[in-house]
Amino acid sequence: MEEFLHIEIDIICIAIMTITLTKLSSVSLAKATKSRWLTLLVLSMISVNVFDIIGRLALIANISFIVPVLYLTNIIYFSSYVFLSYCSLIYVKTLYDKSFAESTKGLLICAIPMFVLITLLLFSPFTDLIFTIDSGGVYRRSNLFFLQPLISCAYFLTASVNSFVYAKKNNIFSVKSELTSYSFCTAFIIICSVLQSLIPDRPILVAGASLAILIMYINSLELKISLDPLTGIPNRLELMDYLSKAVKELKPDQHLYFMFIDVDSFKKINDNYGHNEGDRILKTLSSVISNFCKETKSYCARYGGDELVILKVLSGGENINDLCRRLDEHIIESGIDVDISVGYAKYSADDDSIQDLISRADNAMYLVKQAKKQSRLK
Q1: Is 245 within 8 Å of 88 (Cβ atoms)?
Q2: Which phi and psi (to 5°) does residue 103 adopt?
Q3: pLDDT in tens, 192-237
Q4: Residue 332, SS3 per DSSP
Q5: Which of 309, 341, 331 is nearest to 228 (CA)?
């Protein structure tokens, strides 16, 4: 009876993961590097459930070739689970650094423990290193079985710690929220793994891991809503949330600056070279500014059109003009062939609303553009 209950829960988990996989493949979210790893997470979870069902059906059927079937299903089951844990680590790293998944060296280094475990699993039918199955189909854990939960939990623990640390470093609300949630999800999977090792006859792991992955997917959708689809940086909605919080948390000795950045002659670029070229320039410029903000611990967003924003809190002897100069130098060093105009305004708690701050920064940027035009006419 317990076997059938376990299979029923596996089937429910497969249904949930299949729906999640369908949704992932039907939206543009699946095209992102990090979401490809989320897709692999879902697929590996489905594999864990499927081979758990096959193994239990083989036991129930008590068929003659049960021993090789059980060996095969257990090997694939444990391999799928360790691959799931590996994917979880890569997924969280791509949340913080999109280029990590493109580093073959980094991926291979992270995969070494997984390769070791899978190799030991493949040799288990001949060496009984991880587990053994006798002629009667009775499954038993072997001396090195502890490596299976140890390596998997190590991946999840590393992912949990990394996501927590990255969340502390990140100032984008939606990304911070996803990373924090992911930290708790992976910690929850570790707890389920430990309980599963202690109570092997209960489907604790498959149910808990499926629930955690579903939560990860929901958080990915929430993150997608907060980011600009073209440039990948926060959109105006995320910007206003961040700005509201920054104003409330501003300390007496700090100064909040709102910097408006506008691409010069952007309409001409679109008219002369097409909107694809305009989009390419916006994406490249946004990437350059995003890297600049990481270096200077600033915040950037796309306000709309060709207008980008940088928010920076300064204190002590820091000067906003120095920041503007560093931004100009950073853009020149990047090699991007584009001219920008920057206008800024400082928030004042006495007489400013947020909209007043934005309006003054916009006017300052407009004056810079006008001064450039007059300079060209002389």
Answers
A1: no
A2: -90, 105
A3: 888 887 887 778 888 898 998 888 888 777 777 788 888 888 898 8
A4: helix
A5: 309
What gap in Å lies between CA 120 and CA 129, rounded to an integer? 7
Contact 173, 226 (CB under 8 A): yes
Gap between the terminal Cα atoms of the chain = 90
Backbone region of residue 133 per phi and psi (left: phi > 0; alpha: psi in -120 to 50; beta: other values): beta
User: pLDDT band at residue 30, thresholds of 50, 70 and 90?
Assistant: very low
Residue at 377: amino acid letter: L
- Stated as kind and residue range, the H or E segment containing 44 is helix 33-61
Q: Please, where are the H alpha helices in the chain? A: 2-26, 33-61, 66-96, 104-122, 124-127, 147-169, 173-198, 204-226, 236-248, 266-273, 275-296, 320-334, 354-377
String of b and e for 119-130 (b: at least 16 CB within 10 Å)? ebbeebbeeebb
The residue assigned the tokens 């073209």 is: 230
Distance between CA atoms of 337 and 327, rounded to whole angstroms?
Answer: 15
CB atoms under 10 Å from CB of 7, counted, come to: 18
> 209: which 2 tokens?
């891991």
The predicted-structure confidence for 351-375, as pLDDT tens digits, reads as follows 567 888 899 999 999 998 888 777 6
pTM tops 0.85: no
CB 247 within 8 A of CB 256: yes
